[in-house]
């Protein structure tokens, strides 16, 4: 089987920074057509300009994908630009604290909306597009017609009260990945996940700036003794998006330097 995604069309959300941007850049280098989606239009403009040598294979969509109309417009814009879509990477993530005992704290609902409802709604929309694109294929044609990869966090596997909403959302996203994979399999659509530990991103850098002792605590809780770079994630995403993983669905691959193998105590997960 081939790891190639050359000539395929991918939508990558959260593509203005962090892991989403790393995935988008990697996919472009791998020869894919990429629709970079994010709410940060200025950052998208800068990134697309840097990829100007590949301008025919890169487009951008700026909008709030929590809105149903924006999701529909993103799918339409991708199809208009590239005549279809083959891969969805749900990499848009929002991290924030929760006050667990404060009934007026709305962060749980907000974080569930961004980290769970958004990828669910977009996955459903893309899955319908995959099925439409497959109309006319013979019944004995068992080719995969589309793949979806969800980015989640080990915060969903550890108990961190200060990250209640974020942890809940990521645990639910992993379960969504497994359940949706079963629902989509008869339609020849695969869904898998990549669950990451601490990865150097804008949000983590800001968090470490405000929590001076956190870096040492994270390193001490990680057997490999370091924080990952965003560039270490895209190869795994490409594997799950390619034919090399053609019989893999509903699986969550963990990239955390061994962190979830240990009792990390109350160290914050990002």
UniProtKB/TrEMBL annotation:
Pfam families: adh_short_C2. SUPFAM superfamilies: NAD(P)-binding Rossmann-fold domains. The keyword NADP does not apply. It comes from the Bacteria. This is 7-alpha-hydroxysteroid dehydrogenase. GO terms for molecular function: oxidoreductase activity. PANTHER family: OXIDOREDUCTASE, SHORT-CHAIN DEHYDROGENASE/REDUCTASE FAMILY (AFU_ORTHOLOGUE AFUA_5G02870), SHORT-CHAIN DEHYDROGENASE_REDUCTASE FAMILY PROTEIN. The keyword Oxidoreductase applies. Keywords: Oxidoreductase. Belongs to the short-chain dehydrogenases/reductases (SDR) family.
């Amino acid at each position: 089987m081939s790891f190639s995604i050359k000539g395929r069309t991918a939508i990558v959300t959260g593509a203005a920074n962090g892991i989403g941007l790393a995935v988008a850049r990697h996919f472009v280098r791998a020869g894919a057509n990429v629709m970079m989606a994010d709410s940060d239009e200025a950052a998208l403009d800068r990134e697309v300009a840097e990829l100007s040598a590949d301008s025919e294979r890169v487009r951008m969509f700026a909008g709030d994908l929590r809105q149903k109309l924006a999701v529909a417009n993103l799918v339409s814009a991708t199809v208009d630009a590239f005549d279809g879509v083959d891969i969805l990477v749900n990499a848009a993530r929002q991290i924030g604290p929760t006050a667990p005992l404060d009934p007026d704290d709305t962060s749980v609902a907000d974080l569930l909306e961004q980290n769970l409802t958004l990828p669910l709604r977009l996955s459903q929309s893309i899955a319908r597009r995959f099925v439409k694109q497959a109309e006319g294929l013979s019944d004995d044609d068992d080719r995969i017609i589309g793949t979806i990869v969800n980015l989640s966090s080990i915060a969903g596997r550890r108990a961190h009260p200060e990250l209640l909403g974020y942890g809940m959302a990521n645990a639910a996203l992993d379960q969504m990945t497994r359940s949706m994979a079963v629902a989509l399999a008869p339609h020849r659509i695969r869904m898998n996940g990549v669950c990451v530990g601490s990865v150097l991103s804008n949000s983590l850098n800001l968090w470490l700036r405000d929590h001076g002792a956190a870096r040492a605590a994270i390193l001490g809780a990680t057997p490999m003794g370091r924080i990952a770079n965003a560039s270490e994630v895209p190869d795994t995403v490409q594997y799950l998006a390619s034919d090399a993983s053609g019989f893999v669905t509903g699986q969550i691959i963990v990239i955390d330097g061994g962190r979830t193998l240990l009792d990390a105590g109350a160290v914050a997960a990002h």
